[in-house]
Backbone:
């Protein structure tokens, strides 16, 4: 059974794991009941997804568990859910329960663009018999001859190599994030409105300097008219504190990214007023803005989860 958020509603008894008690650091975790204790004192019970993540990491302690393996364990193939966001939330809740940190991990180590690894030594108690399992130091992984091909074999890996990992971004105040994000939307709205308001002026100038300027004219008009409602939606969502803004922006990102990269060339529409060097400098800065929008929202989302 699955709840509204795509979280597993399975009971602990249904999770495939033998009757074992795991001891690591100051913690003791009962794999049968899902109870977590620190220094012998009971801690708040772990909910479904963080519980399953912990069980899976403990079962494979010292090994790298990929995000794809966790996705397959937590969600069936026919489940519609934002896997990345939900998995990040589950791992963050687990780290909070263990008083662990992604920056200075004692238990759960993030392996960038791959997954996670349980790095602490554990003592497993099976039917009253204790078995201490130290975690050996892992040698640095040396990529083989086919590593370069493996890294670039899929679009998801290529995207991860470019985009920031949400786990590596520091949390930021939601209010600061909303203000900065709103200012970016206002900036793009200004680009669109100014370009459309001065259409005849820059069209006559560009037609003298650029061959086939008619196509450039069409692209500017169409993208500006398409961008205005998108920016108004994002601006209003940020202004009213819409909680699903990060999720909706990530869905729109494949569309927004090429739009923003195209409008990074907007300074060149003002070459009759500014120098080419200044236009190049501003364009270079604008090329980064789509990534900064994504990072800002993820940082604000991380702050909300910690709060």
Residues:
């Amino acid at each position: 059974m699955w709840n509204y958020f795509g979280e597993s509603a399975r009971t602990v008894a249904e999770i495939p794991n033998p009757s074992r008690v795991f001891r690591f650091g100051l913690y003791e975790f009962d794999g049968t009941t899902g109870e977590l204790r620190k220094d012998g004192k009971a801690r708040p019970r772990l909910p479904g997804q963080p519980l399953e993540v912990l069980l899976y990491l403990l079962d494979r302690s010292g090994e790298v568990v990929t995000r794809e393996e966790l996705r397959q364990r937590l969600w069936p193939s026919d489940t519609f859910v934002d896997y990345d966001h939900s998995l990040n939330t589950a791992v963050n809740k687990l780290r909070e329960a263990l008083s662990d940190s992604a920056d200075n991990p004692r238990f759960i180590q993030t392996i960038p663009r791959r997954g996670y690894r349980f790095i602490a030594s554990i003592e497993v108690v099976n039917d009253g018999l204790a078995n201490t399992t130290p975690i050996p130091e892992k040698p640095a992984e040396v990529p083989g001859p086919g590593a370069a091909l493996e890294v670039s074999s899929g679009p998801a890996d290529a995207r991860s190599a470019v985009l920031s990992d949400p786990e590596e971004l520091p949390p930021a105040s939601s209010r600061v994030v909303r203000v900065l994000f709103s200012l970016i939307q206002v900036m793009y709205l200004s680009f669109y409105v100014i370009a459309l308001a001065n259409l005849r002026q820059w069209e006559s100038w560009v037609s003298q300097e650029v061959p086939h300027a008619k196509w450039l004219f069409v692209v500017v008009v169409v993208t500006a008219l398409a961008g205005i409602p998108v920016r108004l939606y994002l601006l209003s969502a940020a202004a009213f504190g819409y909680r699903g803004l990060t999720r909706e922006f990530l869905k729109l990102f494949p569309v927004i990214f090429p739009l923003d990269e195209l409008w990074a060339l907007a300074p060149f529409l003002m070459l009759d007023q500014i120098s080419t060097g200044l236009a190049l400098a501003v364009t270079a800065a604008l090329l980064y803005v789509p990534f900064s929008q994504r990072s800002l929202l993820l940082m604000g989302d991380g702050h909300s989860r910690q709060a």
Notes: The chain has two domains: 12-135, 174-306. The CA atoms of residues 192 and 224 lie 5 Å apart. The chain has eleven helices and nine strands.
